[in-house]
Amino acid sequence: MTDAPDIPVRVRPEIAALPAYRQGRQAGAEAFKLSSNENPYTPLPGVQEAVAAAVEFNRYPDATATALRERLAARFDRTVDEVHVGAGSVSILAQLVQAVSGPGDEIIYAWRSFEAYPWLAVVAGATSVTVPLTDGARHDLDAMAAAVTPRTRAVIVCSPNNPTGPVVRHDDFDAFVRAVPSDVLVILDEAYAEFVTDPDAVDGLRVLGGEEFPNVVVLRTFSKAFGLAGLRVGYAIGHPRILDAARSTTIPLSVTAAAEAAALASLDAEDELLARVREIVDRRDRLADGLREAGWEVPQAQGNFVWLPTGAESLAVAAAFDAAGLIVRPFDGDGIRISVGEHESVAKVLEIAASVVRDLPTGHSGRRIA
Ligand SMILES: *Cc1c(COP(=O)(O)O)cnc(C)c1O
């Protein structure tokens, strides 16, 4: 909300109570912006050219991004009807939540997890049911299944979990979906799938390949691994009936021709982009290992970010990084998330983190038992 004086326009009270969206701070020239899980590599020339060629923007785009859906369907061996494209996977999340829930209905997700989830439920008028993460900052799928009631309309599973990092294991995911009633939508949010190296991690496309779980929809995005965050394009794969429901709630024509062209060009350049992903994964592993060696308690890191459980010290620790030119993302009272950025940022994060951990009180959650 703005700080304008009260005016008589009536806003839904739950909307008025929402905090205004605050973006990760923009970095100054010499700072590293490690607060939004963005890809540090600038776009490939071929992708830039594809965007530059999408010049007829006096015309509306193709409403259902047919060319991209066909391409994704072929890529993942699905039919075109089993693919839905949106202006970022967050917008598809919003469509799905609106399609299945309203006042009196419940949406279950782990907490802490992606900060958009509570907001999506509020906007749909639904009720959030949050299930605390276990030790190691993992989803507690047994507790999530046990939280299902006749009012539950969707469960969101985030793997790797943003902002804490661990994956859900595929055996656990399968057992979870079997335990959930088949009329409850299970949304598997895999925004960081391409960074996963744990062989036991769930892979949504394998789950869907089995035909066993028609109530599961998998969400992926071009924003993170493929570096198109600023163009807004993501996709869902799942049963056509569920995707049709999502399409019915869509704000029409929100995926631009430029975004579609960039996604197609990125699929053309997939090998090159995945080589960049491997570089980022390598940096991530060096970062996580280095932080643990320095004395930090770091949960499994399978996205393009690491999590420091700094608890009550989170804002102070984030300020220390900030002062050193490293913009990180604090979650007050809980921890800080540091994105894996440019090559040069890794040594700098390790240097500052090593000095910060020594200032934490003994026995603090962020410290490994020494
Ligand atoms: C970044 C992210 C998304 C998707 O972002 P878009 O840019 O909207 O595609 C979805 N889920 C999680 C958990 C994310 O971190």
UniProtKB/TrEMBL annotation:
Q: Catalyzes what?
A: an aromatic L-alpha-amino acid + 2-oxoglutarate = an aromatic oxo-acid + L-glutamate
Q: What protein name does the entry list? A: Aromatic amino acid aminotransferase
Highest taxon above the source species:
Bacteria
Which cofactors does the annotated protein need, by name?
pyridoxal 5'-phosphate
Assembly, in brief, is: Homodimer.
Tell me which HAMAP family the record gives: HisC_aminotrans_2, Phe_aminotrans_2
Q: Which GO terms describe its molecular function?
A: aromatic-amino-acid transaminase activity; histidinol-phosphate transaminase activity; pyridoxal phosphate binding
What this chain does, per the record? Aminotransferase that catalyzes the conversion of aromatic amino acids and 2-oxoglutarate into corresponding aromatic oxo acids and L-glutamate.
Please report the stretch or stretches of sequence annotated as the Aminotransferase class I/classII large domain. Answer: 32-351
An annotated GO BP? L-histidine biosynthetic process
UniProtKB keywords: Aminotransferase, Pyridoxal phosphate, Transferase
| NCBIfam families from the UniProt entry | PRK03321.1 (NF002878)
Q: Which residues carry this modification: N6-(pyridoxal phosphate)lysine?
A: 224
What Enzyme Commission number(s) apply to this enzyme? Answer: 2.6.1.57
Q: Which Pfam families match?
A: Aminotran_1_2 (PF00155)
In which family does this protein belong, per the annotation?
Belongs to the class-II pyridoxal-phosphate-dependent aminotransferase family.
